[in-house]
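Need tokens for this chain, all 385 residues.
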Amino acid sequence: MAKVKSAKRNGASTSTPYAHAAKTNAARNIFKMNKDIGQHILKNPGIADRIVQKADLKQSDVVLEVGPGTGNLTVKILEKAKRVIAVELDSRMAAELTKRVQGKPEQKRLEIMLGDVVKTDLPYFDVCISNTPYQISSPLTFKLLATTPSPRTCILMFQREFAMRLFAKPGDRLYSRLSVNAQMWAKIDHIMKVGKENFNPPPQVESSVVRIVPKNPRPQISYEEWDGLLRVVFVRKNKTVRASFFGTTSVMDMLESNYRTWCAQNDIPVEDGPTEQDGEEQMQIDQVAVEDDNQEWGGIMDVDDDDDDLPAFFKEENDLRSKDFTGGKTTKRRKRGKIAELVREKVRRVLEDETELADKRARMCDEGDFLKLLWVFNKEGIHFS
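Here are the structure tokens for all 385 residues:
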């Protein structure tokens, strides 16, 4: 005789506390995560709660979420904010997120934009929260900092080393062009570390969450000029500022070209033609200074910035200098014209006399040093964009 199943007291469900988690895991396994576009779903609800808490959301806030995935973070943001704009590259993820809120009150407060956030024109938002795909960490950061009007705050998850570079200080191992650039436009602080076990699938690296608060009003300087200067001095951050300029022929060629353009735009006459001074001796002095600087630091290179982020003329010059230091072919020498000599003298005067930063290394310079350099260079008609 078959046993009669007794009803649960108080109408309790027969499901276990882990039933919902099992269903969620099953849903995640419907399709394979695409690691090529940085799909690592945050699965720890405690971490998601802390991220939303650190955003200090108001009931009137419109929140931009980048890479919502299956919505583990999205649903928690919807509990606090007026509306969420979720930008998702993968249509499969967008469909999963749509199903998650379908038929619920939150559905009307969620807008899903399908596409690449870096290439998308974003609507107005007050706060950005993101479990950031690591491949777009840098472009997303600067897109947010360039957004008008500026968001009140951004709570972003990054690969830990990238996060540490964002808030690194002069003298730190990870201090780089990224550090100076980001800190010029925003106040940045570290919120918490997040272990790889908190994601599905686990990434190969640890993560960190940072808070980025854009400066308001923004600094009144040209981003192109500012970034152009930083690209020059941080090509090799362990070298002196003097070596960053005089040790790279293409940098001087670029500055000469920019100076000619600036003079033409401002109707400033310039005397061109070959110089009477024999430039061979000065060329040798410059090269010795660079080689001495390289020997002092044992050939240590700046490995923080990917070469893919360097302009083409820097890459070509780096290749040529590498051959020089390893006994390969030497770079071609050519006689300089009068404008080239004038630009070199202006650069020398700025570095040695006006700012006295010639012998300082980029990794030890702070924001004030770079601002001083840019101001004096521009005053001399030397531009970087």
